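#help-structures
NK: newbie question, is this the right format to request a structure? protein is Solute carrier family 23 member 2
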Amino acid sequence: MLSLPTWKCPVWTLNASLVNTSSPEFTEEWQKRIRELQGAIMVASCVQMLVGFSGLIGFLMRFIGPLTIAPTISLVALPLFDSAGNDAGIHWGIAAMTIFLIVLFSQYLKNIAVPVPVYGRGKKCHTSKFYLFQVFPVLLALCVSWLLCFVLTVTNALPSAPAAYGYLARTDTKGDVLSQAPWFRFPYPGQWGLPTISLAGVFGIVAGVISSMVESIGDYYACARLVGAPPPPKHAINRGIGIEGLGCLLAGAWGTGNGTTSYSENVGALGITRVRFCASSCTRCLPFWPKLERGGRGEVGVSQLTLCSRDPSEERPKGATDTRM
């Protein structure tokens, strides 16, 4: 929607280092776009809730399969190439190093355990093995890249002229953001003003909502398969799509500028880390499987979650740890 000529950012706002972000003119420029997004997201979320809670998505499941989901997810990612290319083009060397580190940590160092200090009731202070590179490959790569940029900034290896190539890779280009931000801020509905609605914006967000629903269905099935659960029934998919629509409605009301949906990267994290919450018997792993227990006086209120990891070559999970609440 923001790629339309009406909502393209003015030329004078493109260079963030030359803009006074606290000026009323700049504030109005981005807030009116947020208000337009708010109205479009809230209307489109009503469509998603109608499709989910009415059971229509369950009826359409007969037409949604792998040949429908795969092209949809691919088409959703295609528009991101421009943004990724523009952001990586700030400094291709730093971008290439970040990609290399992500691949290195997630694919080649994932089985290396890092000893970390742990305190327990039985063993007191001792060290335990933690697969750091397997759990935080992206975060570690970003931290290493940022530290390198910080060193290059302190040593003035990166150019200090705003128009020079690689200037935006410096870590001090937006150093005043933290100093200007308030210490505490409480968001509330309508914080950017009254949301506005346009037909073009609504149809654009509805198209994104449709592709999001198709992608979410694929995420539900992929997550169930990774954790060893049976395929989700139609009524569960209906509720999931409906709740996602409700989340989009709340996000639009609060003015976050985006909707809510199932996160495909988290589904991939299940396959990488092989860690999930499962039933105490560890015979069937589910994302959250509460076990209700009855106390001596008849109270029912104790739930049990078991954290366990399963080797891909083994049928039964290992390393189960009970957590009682």
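mod (FA): yep, format's fine, and the tokens are attached above. The CA atoms of residues 261 and 307 lie 25 Å apart.
NK: thank you!
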